[in-house]
């Protein structure tokens, strides 16, 4: 498949739902592991491992990563933005809850919808799609309304880091869709992000004075392995492929499913109660996404 689509087909929807499901679990994995593995060192292990996996994948499939194609500068910029996003996420999870961080992180689709059409007119949203976008985000806020009303001291910094991470994620999408990266392979686009992040986060870890080690529990290594194999490699590779073939302003709002998956995992895995807010949020996000993906 090489042609760009103007709407999301069944294949795109299935990939999106699978990615969002894992991303909902991923925040829980990071939060529960950061107490044992320092945040920047945890990110170092994850991003370095994912970079190696991607190099092996490209070697096996014959994907050229180092051919000159005019993507170097936007690729490095996308990589730095991606690195900044994950630094904010990992540090933010030390200061605020996973649920609060997820809400602020997923303001990213608004940044995409506001900024991308100025550079790529084909990505412009119609009025009904703006209604869908707003409804979906409002539904997520409803889902977290109880916890958002009881912020603990020190959470403000974590919330600010989460909001900054959402902005950086949106800017990363903007760079990818409005530069030569839009025509690069998904593997090469992801390589810039993983490789730059793998180079930046160890420096951040050293500056923070984090202890480096490998003597962690089986749970910690399982968490890091899942974050690496499924999160930073498979799901992000799928996301890069989607950005190349489908409108970013249609894709980004589907990430609102991620915090709801996080809540559902809390219900299923942690035996948390299924509240009226969660049911209302699921309905609101569903309606919002239907409106957003309506074809003209």
Describe this structure in words.
- The chain has 296 residues and is an all-alpha fold.
- It contains 13 helices and no strands.
- The longest helix is centred in the last third of the chain and has 28 residues, at 218-245.
- The chain starts with 9 loop residues before the first helix and ends with a helix.
- It has one domain.
Blueprint (SSEs and pairs):
Layout: H1 10-33, H2 39-61, H3 72-92, H4 98-105, H5 108-119, H6 127-143, H7 145-148, H8 155-177, H9 186-207, H10 218-245, H11 248-251, H12 257-269, H13 276-292
Labels describing this entry:
EmrE-like, Multidrug DMT transporter permease, EamA_dom, mainly alpha, single chain, 296 residues
Brief synopsis:
Helix content is 73%, strand content 0%. With 296 residues, the protein is an all-alpha fold. It is found in: Membrane.
N-C termini distance: 23 Å
SS content category = mainly alpha
Q: How many domains make up the coordinates? A: 1
Low-confidence stretches are none
Largest sheet: none
Quantity of strands, as a count: 0
Q: Helical stretch count?
A: 13
The string of secondary-structure elements, in order, is: HHHHHHHHHHHHH
Mean pLDDT: 83
Shape designation: globular
Rg from alpha-carbon coordinates: 18 Å
Strand content: under 5%
Transmembrane segments: 12-29, 41-60, 72-92, 98-116, 128-148, 160-177, 189-207, 219-239, 251-270, 276-293
Keywords: Membrane, Transmembrane, Transmembrane helix
Main location: membrane
Pfam families: EamA
């Amino acid at each position: 498949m090489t042609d760009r689509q103007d709407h999301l087909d069944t294949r795109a929807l299935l990939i999106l739902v699978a990615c969002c499901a894992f991303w909902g679990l991923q925040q829980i994995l990071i939060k529960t592991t950061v107490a044992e593995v320092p945040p920047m060192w945890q990110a170092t292990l994850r991003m370095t491992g994912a970079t190696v996996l991607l190099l092996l994948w490209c070697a096996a499939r014959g994907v050229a990563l180092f051919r000159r194609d005019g993507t170097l500068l936007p690729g490095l910029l996308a990589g730095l933005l991606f690195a900044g996003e994950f630094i904010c996420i990992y540090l933010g999870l030390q200061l605020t809850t996973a649920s609060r961080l997820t809400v602020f992180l997923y303001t990213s689709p608004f940044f995409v919808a506001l900024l991308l059409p100025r550079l790529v007119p084909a990505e412009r949203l119609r009025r009904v799609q703006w209604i869908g976008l707003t409804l979906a985000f409002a539904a997520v806020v409803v889902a977290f309304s109880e916890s958002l009303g009881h912020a603990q001291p020190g959470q403000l910094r974590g919330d600010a880091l989460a909001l900054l991470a959402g902005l950086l994620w949106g800017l990363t999408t903007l760079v990818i869709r409005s530069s030569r990266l839009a025509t690069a392979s998904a593997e090469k686009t992801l390589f810039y992000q993983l490789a730059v992040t793998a180079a930046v986060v160890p420096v951040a870890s050293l500056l923070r004075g984090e202890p480096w080690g490998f003597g962690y529990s089986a749970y910690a290594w399982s968490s890091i392995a899942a974050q690496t194999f499924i999160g930073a490699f498979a799901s992000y590779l799928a996301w890069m492929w989607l950005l190349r073939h489908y409108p970013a302003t249609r894709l980004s709002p589907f990430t609102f499913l991620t915090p709801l998956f996080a809540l559902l995992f809390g219900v299923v895995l942690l035996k948390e109660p299924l509240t009226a807010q969660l049911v209302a949020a699921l309905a609101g996000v569903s309606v919002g996404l239907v409106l957003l993906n309506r074809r003209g």
